[in-house]
Amino acid sequence: MIARRAALGLMGGLAGAALMPVAATARTPRKPSRLRQGDTVGLVAPASAVTVPYELDRAIHWIRGMGLVPKIGRHVADQDGYLAGRDIDRAADIDAMFADPEVRTLFAVRGGWGGARILPLLDWASIRANPKLLIGYSDTTALHLAIAARAGFPTLHAPNAASRWEAASWESLWHIAFAGAMPVLGGEEVERASGRVARILVPGSTRGRLLGGNLTILSTLMGTGWLPAFDGAILFLEDIGEEPYRVDRMLQHLKLAGVFDRVNGVVFGQCTRCTSPDPDYAGFLLDDVIDRHLAGLDKPVIADFNTGHVTNQLTLPINVPVELDSASRTLRMLEPAVG
């Protein structure tokens, strides 16, 4: 699979179709429906090809284990280079699942790279008219943020269908998507179970809509018109396989774009394998980079939160109001993500 940073140049051909700025996040009068045992859910592959042996079988296994019925997109098994089929076909699968009245929710089978390529090809009128949860993470960030901008309903940053669905991921998904609850996400108990303790960079509490996801994808979309407005939001970020200087570059991009000035708070999650491969490396470490960019902000900030390319990551509700409390290292939902 091609590395995402090696494919960023492909965005140039799409950006021209998406130059219209989004002045404010779109709103919709309806929220996605909550999930129930026995619901049919759509499996789509918006990005990289599903080529790992048994990857689709594993996705089906997890979905059935949740008590749901998987409906596989027509082009999920396609391959066009490193992509899961042609852009137009991957977009058609997503459009079909949103338009299908039998499908309650969409799961991305995997991430990788390619979701941003299909944004101009999607039927946004149909998506707005049929609000459904989209569940996934990593490259699925492109779809999460575009839906927040163009359709206005919540989606869920959670493991992809073929990822490992362990206790914290499943339990937080159940509370948010099935029970329609407003759980407190993170905190000491979750940290103890995962072995990952968040750091308080700037103390305090604040409220705002939760927006964000994968730092590489978010940085790639800056200036394209496919992002929601970040004014008053709680921004969360995560990534994988990026050396510290690349994380520095992307955070500087967000800073120069004014994102950190506009948000009410920041949650930096896990950056897995974000180290230099050079054994003689003597530059900044990842925590140095994060602290230099975020510790001086005049708003609540925590780092090392339990989201990203890690086992037992929490399910997070995108485009839903939350309260960030640095002291307890938690995000508390202020309204349900589903209706």
From TrEMBL:
<dbReference type="InterPro" id="IPR006311">
    <property type="entry name" value="TAT_signal"/>
</dbReference>
<keyword id="KW-0732">Signal</keyword>
<dbReference type="InterPro" id="IPR029062">
    <property type="entry name" value="Class_I_gatase-like"/>
</dbReference>
<dbReference type="Pfam" id="PF17676">
    <property type="entry name" value="Peptidase_S66C"/>
</dbReference>
<dbReference type="GO" id="GO:0004180">
    <property type="term" value="F:carboxypeptidase activity"/>
</dbReference>
<keyword id="KW-0645">Protease</keyword>
<keyword id="KW-0378">Hydrolase</keyword>
<dbReference type="GO" id="GO:0008236">
    <property type="term" value="F:serine-type peptidase activity"/>
</dbReference>
<keyword id="KW-0720">Serine protease</keyword>
<dbReference type="Pfam" id="PF02016">
    <property type="entry name" value="Peptidase_S66"/>
</dbReference>
<feature type="active site" description="Nucleophile">
    <location>
        <position position="138"/>
    </location>
</feature>
<dbReference type="InterPro" id="IPR027461">
    <property type="entry name" value="Carboxypeptidase_A_C_sf"/>
</dbReference>
<protein>
    <submittedName>
        <fullName>LD-carboxypeptidase</fullName>
    </submittedName>
</protein>
<comment type="similarity">
    <text>Belongs to the peptidase S66 family.</text>
</comment>
<feature type="active site" description="Charge relay system">
    <location>
        <position position="238"/>
    </location>
</feature>
<feature type="signal peptide">
    <location>
        <begin position="1"/>
        <end position="17"/>
    </location>
</feature>
<dbReference type="InterPro" id="IPR003507">
    <property type="entry name" value="S66_fam"/>
</dbReference>
<feature type="domain" description="LD-carboxypeptidase N-terminal">
    <location>
        <begin position="41"/>
        <end position="158"/>
    </location>
</feature>
<dbReference type="InterPro" id="IPR040449">
    <property type="entry name" value="Peptidase_S66_N"/>
</dbReference>
<feature type="active site" description="Charge relay system">
    <location>
        <position position="309"/>
    </location>
</feature>
<feature type="domain" description="LD-carboxypeptidase C-terminal">
    <location>
        <begin position="207"/>
        <end position="324"/>
    </location>
</feature>
<keyword id="KW-0121">Carboxypeptidase</keyword>
<dbReference type="GO" id="GO:0006508">
    <property type="term" value="P:proteolysis"/>
</dbReference>
<dbReference type="InterPro" id="IPR040921">
    <property type="entry name" value="Peptidase_S66C"/>
</dbReference>
<dbReference type="InterPro" id="IPR027478">
    <property type="entry name" value="LdcA_N"/>
</dbReference>
